[in-house]
Structure formats: C-alpha cells, structure tokens
Amino acid sequence: MSGSSxxxxxxxxxxxxxxxxxxxxxxxxxxxxxxLVEVVLRSVGDHAYEAAAVDGRVRFRREPEGxxxxxxxxxxxxxxxxxxxxxxxxxxxxxxxxxAPPAGSPRGCSSSSRSR
Length: 116
Known about the structure:
Layout lengths: L1 H27 L11 E6 L2 E6 L2 E10 L2 E11 L14 H6 L18
Antiparallel strand pairs: 1-2, 2-3, 3-4
C-alpha cells in the first residue's frame, strides 16, 4: 500500500505544481502588465511547449531534424506570439539601454514604449 500512497502524494504534488504554474501564467498575462510582459513560455509535455501572450497563444512541438531541431505548430488561438520572426521588430540594444530606468527603480517603469 505504501507505493499507492507515494503515487497519490506525487500526483497531488504534480497537480499543485501545475496549479501554481497556471496561476503564475494568469498573473503574467493580466492586461494590466501587458506593457511589461511580451510572452510567457512553458513546457506542456515531452518536447511540447506553449507560448502565450495577452492576445493569443501557440502550442508547438520540437522534433529532431538532421543535427538540429525543427518546431511544428500544433495549435494557435488568437495571435501567435511567436509568429512575427522579423529581427528588426525590437529596438536596437543601444536604444533600449539609453531608455533603461535609473538603477534601483522597478523594471518597466521607464517612459519608453515598445512598438507592436
């Protein structure tokens, strides 16, 4: 019977962990912090991942290809937060550093805004 008890305890711990991850994701995807959080990534299975943003999410799987990997979309809901692969989408690093908040102030409190 002790094996059954440890299995139940392990399952309960896994359920609690998943609930904590779900709670954290919900907090990070709250529209009130959209200006701070671009995307939340999480593992959802063996070689399966999900990227979520306030306005959409994509689930994808990593598969071996040659000596590397390829990523296959499984499901998209709303906007795919990884769909825009343009490297010029973000400001240059020097510009980001120039707009950084003063040392000691909370991150994301500068007057700069990210373009979408």
